Amino acid sequence: MTASVLIELKNITKRFSSGSATTTVLDDVTLTIRHGEFVALVGPSGSGKTTLTHIIGGLLQPTSGKVLIDGIGLNQKSDKQLSYYRNKQVGFVFQNFSLLPDYTALENVSVPLLLAGMDQQGREQKAKYYLTTMGLEQKLHHFPAQLSGGQRQRVSIARALAVQPNILIADEPTGSLDTQRGEEIITILEQLNRQKGVTLLLVTHNAELAERADRIIHIQDGKTREVLS
Ligand SMILES: Nc1ncnc2c1ncn2[C@@H]1O[C@H](COP(=O)(O)OP(=O)(O)OP(=O)(O)O)[C@@H](O)[C@H]1O
Ligand SMILES: [Mg+2]
After folding, report:
1. In 3, 129, 178, 225, which residue has its Cα 20 to 30 A from 108's Cα atom?
2. Where are the beta strands (DSSP E) in 19-59?
3. Using an 8 Å Cβ cutoff, are 139 and 131 in contact?
């Protein structure tokens, strides 16, 4: 049986303007992702991968077109429903990590749990658990500036996983990691997908990683095309 559609993009266009110049980054993109799928998103630098993920995650508005989640338009959601979607349904591993510089690793992972309404003890327990999973048990009280790039990346992964999202969007989650650490992280993401049914959208430049997905979406010149892996 084929799983039902979870994410549907309908005729999404995204333009950025600066001064008199306008760039069309996404040009009438239509695609669907089903519940529990593992989809890789690949394409050259600047092709719009991050832009597309931010639109799916409700962090960026398209210029035109619709994003439907379980058949409901993000633009139809109330502010409350939209924050629920952003904070609890979607976990984001950002390309630039987006850690709060004045917060420790433990606090960074705890913030979304606070937004999700968890009490302090629960937050701390969960944040420690996920940081430990990422091999960072010695770094709980370090600030981002005191961590290496790879360690920061792992904090951002722990932060995304801790909310136990049902959609995980990971933008080059292994970009700053060595091969072995990268392999460990991808295995964790794959397990979440296969065992817990988390829908996984993985942005990667790594062709071997992309091959592990159920489906590969290529993006170039504002258009997407799909290839079965
Ligand atoms: N806020 C913005 N204002 C203006 N242009 C933007 C903005 N955000 C992105 N762009 C432009 O949109 C295009 C796509 O950017 P995006 O970050 O989505 O690319 P990408 O595929 O993720 O690239 P990379 O592989 O390098 O991360 C780029 O040309 C970029 O300069
Ligand atoms: Mg990007």
Report:
1. 178
2. 21-34, 38-42
3. yes
The answer to whether 169 and 136 have CB atoms below 8 angstroms apart is no
Question: Residue 46 CA: which ligand is closest?
Answer: 1
Cα 142 to Cα 107: distance, rounded to the nearest angstrom = 10
What is the CATH code of the structural domain delimited by 36-61+88-228? Answer: 3.40.50.300
Parse the chain into domains and list their residue ranges: 36-61+88-228
Ligand 1 pocket: which of 22, 42, 49, 61 to mutate (most atoms within 8 A of CB): 49
Six token digits for residue 179: 């091969």
Task: Name 223's bridge partners.
Answer: 220
Distance linking the first and last C-alpha atoms of the chain = 19
Q: Which ligand is nearest to the CA of 52?
A: 1
What is this structure's pTM?
A: 0.94
pLDDT in the model for residue 176: 86
What is the residue-averaged pLDDT of the chain?
94
Task: Identify whether the C-beta of residue 41 lies closer than 8 Å to the C-beta of residue 226.
Answer: no
